[in-house]
Each structure stands twice: as C-alpha cells, then as structure tokens.
Amino acid sequence: MASITTKLLHHLALFLFLVQLTGPVLASKIKSHAALKPQPPSTYIVHANHLAKPPHFATLEDWYHSIVAAHSPRPTNTSRILYTYDTVMQGFAVQLTGDEARRMSGTPGVAAVYEDEMFYLQTTRSPGFVGLDPKNGAWNETNFGDGVIIGFIDTGIWPESSSFSDNGLGPVRASWKGKCVDADDFNASLCNNKLVGAKAFRAGRAGSKICGGVPSPRDKDGHGTHVSSTAAGAEVPDAGLHMFSRGTAWGLAPKARIAMYKACDIDGCSGADIIAAVDAAVKDGVDIISMSLGGQPRSFHSDAIAIATFGAERNGVFVVLAGGNAGPGASTVINTAPWMATVGAATVDRLFPSNLTLGNGAVLAGQSLYAMQAKGTAMMPLVFSGSPGDWTPDTVMGKIVVCMDGATDAHGILLQNAGGAGIVGVDPREWSRDGTTAYAFTLPGLALSYTAGEKLRAYMASEPNPVGSFSFGCETVISKNRAPVVAGFSSRGPNQIVPELLKPDVVAPGVSILAAWSGDASVSGDFVDGRRTAYNIISGTSMACPHVAGIAALIKKKYPSWTPAMLRSALMTTAWTIDNRGRRIRDNGATADLNDGVRVATPLVAGAGYVHPDLALDPGLVYDAGKRDYVDFLCALNYTAEQLRLFVPDFVRCTRTLAGGPAGLNYPSFSVVFDNGTAIRTLTRTLTKVSEEAETYNVIVKTPKHVKVTVTPTTLVFNEPNERKSYSVEFRNEARGNRKTEWGFGHISWENENHRVRSPVACHWQN
What we know:
The chain is an alpha/beta fold.
C-alpha cells in the first residue's frame, strides 16, 4: 500500500512494499552448513519441467514425491508436499533444509528451486471521477460488467458486507469451476451470485498451524474486502466512514463477480501460497486477477510470481498488480514484467478539510477524518511530540502535540490515553509540499503538508508559549482541488529489470479511497482501537490496482475475445494526461520544478496517464502481443534456454531476433536507451484495428529534447476489423555529448476525428 497511509504504523506490511524477509535464492547457490547444527526447514518452490518426467512414473505427483523422498528423506507416512502447481507453472512447494534444496536443484527435470519469500500488500467518489455514470457511458454499454469474474489474491473477504449483495444478479456462468469452502468461521453458504468463490492458502507458512485443518477465507485485516469491493462492489446507498464521503458506493464493475483467494494476512504473503492461489484462480476460470502486492524487483527468470503470472497470461487471464509505494525515489516501481498491468496511485478531487488556527492568527489548512464538528476549539498549548514512549499526563495533559515526523490515528489513540488534548501530524518529506493525508483520529487532530508544517515550526520557534485551536467541519469537499495528482508515495521508473520497458503502465485513484471493510478489523488497524466500521478510507497503490481490474472487467465484457495485451493497450493508449483544470497532470513527489515551474508527472511517474473507462471501451486501435512475442522479448534479454524453459517448458532455442532488442516488444509505450555513444535507435510497432468502420489515422509526434523522431509511414489506412498495420520509429540522438541530459519525454499519437491512440515516449542517455 502506501508509504503514506490512512492506517496504522503496523500496516507498513500493507502499504510500503519496501522490505522482504528473504529473497528467492536458486538452490544451486545455497551454501552447505552440514558441519553446523541441524538446519531448520524452510519452504521452497520446486519448478519442474513436466516434459522431463521419467515414463515409469504414472503421474507427475508420483514423480514429485519420489524427488522429495530421494533428496529429503524423513520418517513420515504423510505427504510433505504443500502444493502442487499444474496450470500456470509445473512443480510443487515443500519444506526443505538448505542442503536438501541444493541437492534437489541438481535433479534431472528440476528447472529451478527457489527459497520462498514474503510479499507485501501494497469508493463513492472514484468511479465518478474517472467518468463512470449509472445513466450512460461505459456502465450502460457493458451492463456494469455483468458476468465477468475477477479473482483477488489478498487477505480474504468479509462476505456479510452489503457490497457483496447479489440482488439483481443472475447465476454465475456454467463454465465456472470455483467454489467457496467451509471453515470454522466461514460458512460456504455465505457465498452467492456476487461472491462466487472463496478459498484460502496458508501451507506455505513454515510452521503455521491452521485451526480445524481448513484455512479460512475470512478477512481479519480489511485489505482484501476493501480491494474487492473497490473493483466489483455492488451498489450501496449512503455508505461512508462516519459522516465522511457519504453517498452511493459502487465498484468499478458493480455487476462483475468476485472470487477471493486468500494468500495474505497482516504480515504479508508467502510466495508459495501466492502461486497456489494464481494456479487455482486460472484453473477455476477467472477472467482477471488483481494482486495488490509485491516484493523486491528481480530478473524475471528468478521471480516465481513473474513466472506464474506469465502462465496466467498464457491462459488468457488479464493480470493487474500494484506498482508499489516506495516513491518518490527513481527506479522503485515493482511488478515490471510486460505481461502485467502495473498501476501507480493518484488522487481524486476529494478533500476532508480542517484547520489549525495559531495564536498569531495564521490559519493552516490540513485534512482530518475526526468525527466531531467544531467551529473553533479553545486555544491550547502547542508542544513538540518527543517519543510516544514519553507521553505521560505530566507532559501532554491538555496540550496539542505536534509530530513533525507525521502521525497516524494510532498515535492519536496513544496520545488520548495519555491525556493529550489534540494531535497534529506533519508530513516530513519536502517533496510533499502541498500534499496531505486524512486520518480518522479519535481525539481532535489533523494532518498538515510539509509546507504548512514549516509555517507551524517557525511560529512555535518564535513564540515562548505557542498555542493553537482546531476547526472541524466534518466535510467532504469535491471538485475544489486540482486532480488528479500522482501521489508522492507511488513508485516510479525507470524499470530496474528492463530499462527498455516503461513502467508503471498507468495511474488510477489510490488516495483516500472509500470501500468496504472487515467487521473483524478496527478503523485504524490497531488492536487497541475498538472502533469498527462497514466502510473505511485508506490509500496506496493497493487501492489503485483494483480500479484498473474493475475497468478491465468492463472492457472484457464488451470484448470477451480480446487478449490480455489488447486490454492493457486499450487502458494505456486512452489514458488521460490532462487534469480537471485542463493542465498536465502534476507529480506530488517531484523533487524539483519541471517545465517552467510546473511539477509535471512524466511517463516515469504516471506511465501512459490516468485511466479513462469510457475511452478505453473504444480505443480504435490496439497493440497486441502473445506468448511468442514475450518469448522473443526474453530472448532479447539474453536468457538461456534453461531459463526460458521456466516460462515455456517445450522451448528449444531462440528463432527470431527482436529488432531493437527488448524495446522492440509490441508494447503501447516506448522507452529508448542511448548508450555507448548510440546515435540511432529504430523500433517497430504493429497496430490492430478494433473499430468497425474504415478509418485513416495520421501520426502526431511530440519529440523529446535532444532527439529527432521520424515515424514511417505517417498515415495508416484501415479498412477491415482486425486489420494489422506496422510502422517504424527512428529515434536519432542529437544530445551531442551533453552530459546533463538524462531523460527526455514526448509521445507518439495516431489520431483522427474519432480516436486518439497515444503512446508515451521516454528517452534515456547513459553516459
């Protein structure tokens, strides 16, 4: 989720994506420690090539069991294999010692052995802000996404929520193979024609104990309930958090169906469990998988999640993942494979205003979800926070405590228990000069931006006895702020793994999003917080990801035969680059002013732009790609045949050269790297016509600085549906050794009176 969140500090597991407990390690690189004390077992994912199964084994599972018995003998009569994978990849998960994993990696037919890792989880107004209207447009055109099935790999679901009502829905399609499972605290009868599947996966947690033997898909955390209702929640009148953001709550595809695959909890998600969930979701027949989680970027051949999602894409399933919350630093975006839709977070035009009036009369504007109105409290002493451990009645009683490093609602609970009268949290990050996040404080409190915080700091330094007063209107203000703005916490490019592939792909609403919440989770997420709510407001790229999953469901409803690449292209080439003031979308995380003082969100920050469902339903042209294109892409990365067989078990050798290297993949964006004195890069793209009428498109080019761009041809004429036309783009480096030039941005757009098919361009000089 987010490095700025609306929840508790211990929700860093849900909002940061910053740290992994352990990385995937090829077992061939695991050192032997036989001379030391016995090694505790860990979970390992064994990736097998099923085509190499010896013929004397009747089934793959028989073969897998023999491998385990040979290389990890234990006195047991029960199976030690935790999962077998047979759809998105072939293999199994098992608990091994490091030495056993090392030996197993040398077994014929075993392609790789990875030590399991942990991954971390990263709305009344947002559907309206992106243009969805119950009376016309995309919702009417697609019957609200009726029948499309979205699979969520997350923390589970709270089935009693009104957002999962199936009123007005017909039965799920006959081809659906999923189901709901019974557990101690989850009755399968709670499922219906909206919630059509609910399963849990927990065997990957070494040493985990499951009460009753059956893991429950019930959501104890709130995250899975929130994201699934964001994408596909039913219409719920008068929803809100207290009096905030009240109105009719809708998912982005209100009639789409939900299948929950619980593989996560507040501590994160096991890679072995995630792969089992992806495997089950594809086998069950989902159309879309939404995964608001991620870990450290790594080469695709050593990333089991990348391999599993490749398998999902190969089976026609569109996969969308959160881009991470480690912004605004460069090269922080995660989930960067080309067969994934990678989503960053941006704002909607909604604020929750509150004010702090200082003793000198200055008024500092902030945001708060404090649930009591007050036109102006009494003036109270202002003090800097110190450590929360030092908050005692002697130090904070009757005072407003100022936290210059930020404060969440969890801090507020601690301060209230110590007798504090109020709390002010200041965003400490200078890049967040005009951004702030709202928290549901239990005592009078608000959050201030860095800019407002500096004014507060100066006042407190100039006064021997500084005082302040709060004003709370308990308001939700719409359309008065400039939006969208890319959130500073949203991770950004360039892509660490493949600089020639631009990521993130798009941005979507991810700040202060209202959606359904678990009845077992508090408002803040803290165990000492006794407050419960049916709907909650939180932030992060975790919230942006299901917005795109929901929009993809609308597109899938209209075009059921489209490939995942076509869906992704429609989302990207129609995305907004202009905000509600008619100006270029801003970046709240920019460390320096760009373009004459305007902090513009570049393609490294916003990808192709802010998703627009109505336009995405009529893109005119799309960039398609499939298994062979991705194999050519991996070949261009110089992956070995052994590494490529992790993705395509029957791979023999690279037979085609991708012109332009990895940048030559038929992708809806361009990332051009000038290195080693390169003067010219030439790339080719192919467009497929998806509109019915004959059309002629002319190219419009905005060239990056220091680059000459030549597109050939400049006109494309399409006469028939599904007709394909190719064009080439020559990027000529004219920087002339200018060492100050690092990145340049532009776009290539094919346009006529009905359609605009826009691709962002990013050029990089490596000196």
